[in-house]
Amino acid sequence: MTDVLILTISGKDQPGVTAGLTTTLSQLPVYIRQLEQIVLQGHLILGISVMTKDAPNDETFAKATELAEEFATTRNLHVDARAIHTAELSNWREHLIVTVLGAPLLPSSVASITSTIADAGGNIDRIRQVASYPVTAVEFEVGGVSKAMLRDQLSAVARENQIDIAVQDSGLDRLGIHLIVMDVDSTFIQDEVIELLAARNGVEAQVAEITARAMNGEIDFEQSLRQRVAMLKGLSANALTEVLGDITFTPGAKTLTRTLNRIGFQVALVSGGFIEVVKPLADSLGVTNVRANKLAVVDGVLTGELDGPIIDRQAKATALREFAAHYGIPMSRTIAIGDGANDLDMLNEAALGIAFNAKPFVRDAAHASVNTPYLDTVLYVLGITREQIERSDAAEGIETPAPAILQ
User: Comparing C-alpha atoms, which of 348, 343, 339, 328 is closest to residue 378?
Assistant: First the structure.
């Protein structure tokens, strides 16, 4: 004797299907164990499992199937009925969230992902669409496989298919207030501020070469920073204000910070650049948590030296921990975003380290990577949908920019 009846209703979406089906089933001594529905481009799939209130009764299930089919016929819908034993039901288990970003997302890429999950012994329990533009973002809920193993295997799939994949736990931590710490140059903004300043002092090429070597991890960051700052000697301090007009935010940076502020997350900018530039940028977007280096100035002119402690690779990780402690946010709810060698300690220290358009060796070392030009795609990794972003913006009278010009 079977214990559970599973009914799956499918067909053209229309008002009143769930109400009609449950009203029909209310004639029988059954109760609902599970109820889920999805509408995909106007096509409805409604799943409901019921159990009898008393002892298992095949006659009750047969009548429930008959009534469901009669109802479905009136709506030109299809019914699939299956009776199973309780032992066959899926039990609760730890789940992982696998977020996939693709522009475009090809069927072959999804085939590689799902095959890898299956080969690792995992099972996909749910699939949810998060965004359809400017990238396609899909979220898989997966059980039965370890996070470390799945991350390793899917990172290879991501590289081979030129897509982005993030693997996270699905526990309560994902729902709580988070701390998001971001690098600034070439992450939060598209520029390297020190190179913009160097251009004003006629040494842009020399500084850019050192910057590239430091970002690739070829030379020590502090050594490279001091070398580059020395080349700024004699530059008017006014350049620190003037350069703000040359800076371009990374597409999606404004949307990202606006959305995170709206839902109460803590946002921090931690930069190997300069506080004189980073602080005004942060203020303009409502970011109050900032760490960056300070340039020494005497008589309105840069001395070519730094004033105070260096914000280097280790200091960025320290800042992450200190901001988390200050706001009482557990490290299990921290996310770091960066692109260079100087960000690696911070990326590894966070619960989720995201390499954003990063150098290959940084991508390989990070927990996840995002290689689209849009910084707000990080929101999709958090499970925030494009629809939610745009609806919230509209409620505040903000017009969400079109994909090609996202800010």
Answer: 339
